[in-house]
């Protein structure tokens, strides 16, 4: 059968891995796809690198638009990244009637609605398994495997850099800045790690998963995003004493009033499987009404794990290459005319539990004042830890875990607590999720 010809845009880490795995497992992949899949054109600014990786087995160019305009190319793999030229290339490929496979979570989270509409109108597919959690087939699971379910919520450790940093901070008791340098030295963090450590990368991925889980448009601009840069090792230690681990979670939850979409450091009970995901690994926990909780775990980045997802998409597109566009799996799982513009709730309307740490004067009545404020705001306490002041010190820490409440109430209570003359500095507040 006639091979499927693929144009590869970008032959860096993931592009190189894709070329290598596709070549190494060519026979197995062909048996699954029903025809050979071959990369016939590669675009990269670094032609020397492209030549080294491909060994002369593909036509090389430094002009990506040449590849998306090539009439012999059936599928375009976009691995350039970013929002700018990648958007132009993907839209041009779609306009030219080519299917697209991409690992670009930023592009889809910000411009996905436009891209999917263009693909729908042109009758081509945009596949993006590699955009979320590397080699873990979470998109396939949400879009197809859990079709029978009403997805209630999902929560994911979906950034390996931050998970590595938090694991090291917990194991070694080191401050954030020191562990970040270690992560950069080991290659887990970029020279400019802002997207990772500030939670933006995780928010891109959570946005994509929320759209598929709930049948809503991409709404990255509505997501609440908080990174790990201000996390203090003392809070990681206190959380451990109370039976919790702190992870940067991407959370999407269906509520009657709308959808919660948020990324932030989160206390999780240590007995939960997802709380024990360490190092640079990823995991996503999905709660469906029929199946209950399902957990997806694996490598969230790297050349061959991500290539695994890219090639899985290539095989899917190859199988459906000539199928009726009306009978393909919809991009966002729901039929395009059934995607609903449900509002994403502001963080003030989120309902969750809280970890509160206060530095206070060590004197009688302080705890009573604080608990009275929480009670006035309708916030009940689940657990309390009060450190005895060290010898010669006049201040100590009070740590409280609350039951679930609306964030607006928590904000009001924290403001009143910080105004107490016996409270020193700001209250440290971290959100908690039981994930039951």
Explain this structure:
The protein has 436 residues and is of the alpha/beta class. It folds into 3 domains: 4-135 and 303-338, NAD(P)-binding Rossmann-like Domain (Rossmann fold); 138-299, Dihydrodipicolinate Reductase, domain 2 (2-Layer Sandwich); 351-432, ACT domain (Alpha-Beta Plaits, 2-Layer Sandwich), CATH 3.30.70. It has 15 helices and 17 strands. The chain starts with a strand and ends with a strand. The model has no long low-confidence stretch (mean pLDDT 95).
What structural keywords apply?
single chain; 436 residues; alpha/beta; Rossmann fold; Dihydrodipicolinate Reductase, domain 2; Alpha-Beta Plaits; six-stranded parallel sheet; 17 strands
Q: Helix/strand-derived class? A: alpha/beta
Biggest sheet features: 11 strands, mixed
Return the CATH architecture of the largest domain.
3-Layer(aba) Sandwich
Tally of individual helices: 15
As an assembly, this protein is: single chain
Strand content: 25-35%
Name the average pLDDT: 95
The CATH class designation of the largest domain is Alpha Beta
Low-pLDDT segments, ≥5 res: none
Shape: elongated
Helix content: 25-40%
Number of domains: 3
State Rg. Answer: 24 Å
What would a concise description of this structure say?
The protein is α/β, with parallel strands linked by helices.
Describe the secondary-structure layout:
Blueprint: E1 4-9, H1 13-24, H2 26-33, E2 37-43, H3 47-54, E3 59-61, H4 64-68, E4 75-78, H5 85-95, E5 99-102, H6 105-122, E6 126-127, H7 138-145, E7 151-157, H8 160-172, H9 176-185, H10 194-197, H11 200-214, E8 224-225, H12 233-241, E9 244-255, E10 258-269, E11 281-288, E12 292-299, H13 303-319, E13 351-361, H14 366-376, E14 381-386, E15 395-402, E16 405-406, H15 407-418, E17 423-432
Parallel strand pairs: 1-2, 1-4, 2-3, 4-5, 5-6, 8-10, 10-17
Antiparallel strand pairs: 7-9, 7-11, 9-10, 11-12, 13-15, 13-16, 13-17, 14-15
Helix pairs in contact: 1-13, 2-13, 5-6, 6-11, 8-9, 14-15
